[in-house]
User: Fold this.
Amino acid sequence: MCQFGSEDSRSSLRILSHDTQMSLEDLLAWAPSGSPEAALAGQVDFDRLPGHVAVIMDGNGRWAAQRHLPRVDGHRAGIDSVRDVVETSARLGIQVLTLYAFSVENWKRPPLEVSVLMGLLKRYLRLELESLVANDIRFRVLGHMDGLPDDVRRELEVGQDKTHSNHGMLFNIALNYGGRAEIVHAARRAIAAGVRPSDLDEERFGELLYTSGQPDPDLLIRTSGEMRVSNFLLWQIAYAEIWVTETLWPDFRARHLLEAILEYQKRDRRYGGITQPAFVGGR
Assistant:
């Protein structure tokens, strides 16, 4: 779980909507000359971008422990990481970005930590909503909002309502979310709707998930080096390319996202099939 933004750089935020074609020149103009970001940006193939990037933001606690700080300081330190990933994704032209913010299992954490996390979420929404609206980004929550504190739920509803008509990048926050719970919820919806077993196929079932109408993730990123998916988008990541970095979430920046995308673009996505070899003649 990570935390959410501050107002330090809101005035400098410049994000292009999906109605504007991003070019390499635009991206290089954003990245400082001679920086690692500029070098990586020059290698991006804009015709092969992942449509949907999902991120498991992990390592806040370890980041804090390494510095002998309370765990909540690790959550606060991830503020810039959230902003960097959202801004860079929108600049690149990513269609959907999903950040795993708070799982159904995270309620087991100490009450003070949970309270701080909820406060950080509210603060993020209040400070960043204007930028999301101005830059045509649509905000959406994946998860059980009914289980959240009333004040947090109200902030989320305002954020979703005010960005509902935007047409740029879709920015999902998975909050009070669990992949298994989502699948069970979808099954219950199918039963309640009277869907006959013979009519329930993968396409119909997908329409009952929180991500209905969205493309499945092409790229799943996990920070902190852990090799597990942690009950995140279990149905949707069936064919996602997975990229794991040892970098802890508070240290994750635009260059790491660019590295993940470049690695994604090197992979051969076969969806269970095989790559057809070139025919060289003979029998």
In short: Strands lie at 52-56, 96-103, 138-142, 170-177, 219-222, 241-244. Residues 1-21 have pLDDT under 50 and may be disordered. The radius of gyration is 20 Å. The longest helix spans residues 111-134.
